[in-house]
Amino acid sequence: MAGHSKWANIKHRKARQDAVRGKAWSKCSRAIIVAAKNGGGDPDTNLTLRYAIEEAKAVNMPKDTIAKAIKKGSGELAAGESYEEIRYEGYGAGGVAIIVDCLTDKVQRTAPEMRRIFEKAGGNLGKPGAVAFGFNQKGLIAIEADKTTEDQLMEIALEAGAEDITDSDGVWEVTTDVPDFISVKEAIEEAEIEMQSAEITMIPLNTVACDEATAQKVMRLIEELEDHDDVQKVHTNADIPDEVMEKLA
């Protein structure tokens, strides 16, 4: 799990910028539309939709914008574009594994653009399944260590169904199985413990240590991928030292 909190810190700071927030809202809208289209507009019966709504709330997306996206997906409003879910897998500098989850209205456009981004950063795009076997899908909740004690967090999170709690560089990382993510998140919210981030993500089984030069290339690749309109999430097994992360941040 090394590197998750550190990368989350970078994303957390980026999300405060208005331009990035606007792009985040657009990505969340796509996720909500697709989830509602595939499983209906009721988040109580459509967990994928509920996860998408939770992520939209995490970036302060307005309630009326969320509601409009749900209506587009469920057919109450004209949705316009039709999006397709597709995953790209590849390697960055130093053999770092990269997973890119996309929602695109034109695969013929997105695929070559993903390949170009990888190659430009010294990586290469692989075949489906090339790196996914090295990750597990989990719920991940990050909480700054000064927001709660270990005993309090363990009592709340483990009772709600959390799988594990670890200290990662001054940040508590609470991991859950995907079906338990919402119940654990709600239990932490009810205890009024401030969360740094909460998401369904891909956690690497093993990590690749990066020196400064490799880390710079990997971060440049990840940032360019995240800036692409079709990209929803980027997952990596890069382990970047604190001092290098701070220097590059």
Folded structure, characterized:
With 249 residues, the protein is of the alpha+beta class. The protein has a domain at 4-74: Arc Repressor Mutant, subunit A, CATH 1.10.10. The protein is 46% helix and 22% strand. It is built from 9 helices and 10 strands. It has helices at 4-14, 18-39, 47-58, 63-74, 107-120, 150-160, 181-190, 212-227, 242-248, and strands at 84-91, 97-104, 124-125, 135-144, 164-167, 171-176, 197-204, 208-209, 231-236, 238-239. Strands 3-1-2-9 form a 4-stranded antiparallel sheet. Strands 5-6-4-7 form a 4-stranded antiparallel sheet, with helices on both faces. It has a two-stranded parallel ribbon with strand order 8-10. Helix 2 packs antiparallel against helix 3 (47-58), helix 2 packs parallel to helix 4 and helix 6 packs across helix 7. The longest helix is centred in the first third of the chain and has 22 residues, at 18-39.
Notable characteristics:
single chain, 249 residues, alpha+beta, Arc Repressor Mutant, subunit A, 4-stranded antiparallel β-sheet, 9 helices, 10 strands, 46% helix
